[in-house]
Amino acid sequence: MKELFLDRKFVFLWLAQAASGLGSTFATFAISWLVYDMTGSKMAMGSIWLTFMLPNIIIQMFAGPYLDRWDRKKVMIFSEWFRGAVFLLPAILLPMGVLEAWHLYVVSIAVGLAQPLFYPASMAYVADILPKDKLTKGNSILEGTGQLMTLLGPTLGGIMISAFSVELVLFILIIALGVSGMLLMMNPSSKKQRVEQKESWFIQFKEGLQFYRVYPVLFWVGIMMMIINFSSGAAQPMFLPYITDELGGTAFQYGLFTSAFSLGMVGGSLLTGLLKEPKNRKRVMLGSLFIDGLLFIGLAWTSYYWLALVFSFGQGLFAIIFNINNTTLYQRRVPEHLRGRVFSVRILLAQAGIPFGAALGGMFAEAFSIPLLFAVLGMIIIFTNLICWRQPIFEKLNDHVVEDRGEQKASL
């Protein structure tokens, strides 16, 4: 691992991703805080997430096939500097006292269009600058740094808002995104891609759909995730008013609550890496989501902040256990030449419920209460898992991996 930090190109990419991760975390934190501080509306919190997630999902779906045709370094720089320029709007208007809520919606849409370009371009760029025998270690460092920024960012943002102001968070995130782009400029461009006939996005997406005929269990897992992510999409925008209004917390405590979820994800990743691969994947995957539903009900029930922290940690831990096993399931069963296309369909299935959840969750919380919303969301997750548990198709989660890839290709 030491030799990677002697590689100038990798070090610049590593520092750029660290700055990008901090800027992105601060951006989410600042937008959420500003919207709720200006409007006091739970519906507005849901709608601001909706305006971010819709363009985010669309870009993730459609940009994948084209990223291989563009210079990945330039794509990353564009993503960083475009987002940094967009956040100049609230950073300038807020001290002048003329910032309005609609400005934040414009920012949210613009960020939703640019942010999803960075990560896939970065992952592809790593393969351009590192030899194959260094990829695993390089990815480990980059992923670990990203998780660290996700863990520290909300807490740091909360401290800055409590001790100073949200303007400081805005200026730091702009600087971080700007520095990230400058670091990337010092690296070489992507390796020149071979000029070859490219299939249209529609053809690639259609081929991804056809794979689900070979493994229909993956389709039904995707439908299940659509429902689960509907609940997550409804809950995520409500965490700020939940901490500040329901539990009487501060900006720092909201940041700590968000960091507890990330810490749970780190813990779940370590736990999954230390344990052997489960023999009963169905029990682990559905059981993790079942416990996640119970923890939602726990958030609805408790009036103690420290207990909410424990529940948030638990949600992150069990969410990542499910995600790791789900990703492994795909990696084991999807042929290499179809992964991009199948994953495009996976993104559509898994994330389609998030924007609808964000919109409806805000309306429900406004009409009733956040604790009742969390209780309903927890029951949705629990009942979904109970239904899936009783369906024979989910027994296929425990099937042995088909080693003969040729059989899969012939089926397609």
UniProtKB/TrEMBL annotation:
Superkingdom: Bacteria
UniProt KW Transport keyword: yes
Pfam families per UniProt: MFS_3
Alphabetic keyword roster: Cell membrane, Membrane, Transmembrane, Transmembrane helix, Transport
Residues in Major facilitator superfamily (MFS) profile domain copies: 1-193, 217-412
Keyword Glycoprotein set for record: no
Subcellular location: Cell membrane
Membrane topology: Multi-pass membrane protein
TM ranges: 12-36, 48-68, 80-98, 170-190, 211-231, 251-272, 284-301, 307-324, 345-364, 370-389
Family matches, as PANTHER family: INTEGRAL MEMBRANE EFFLUX PROTEIN-RELATED, MAJOR FACILITATOR SUPERFAMILY ASSOCIATED DOMAIN-CONTAINING PROTEIN
Name recorded for this polypeptide: MFS family permease
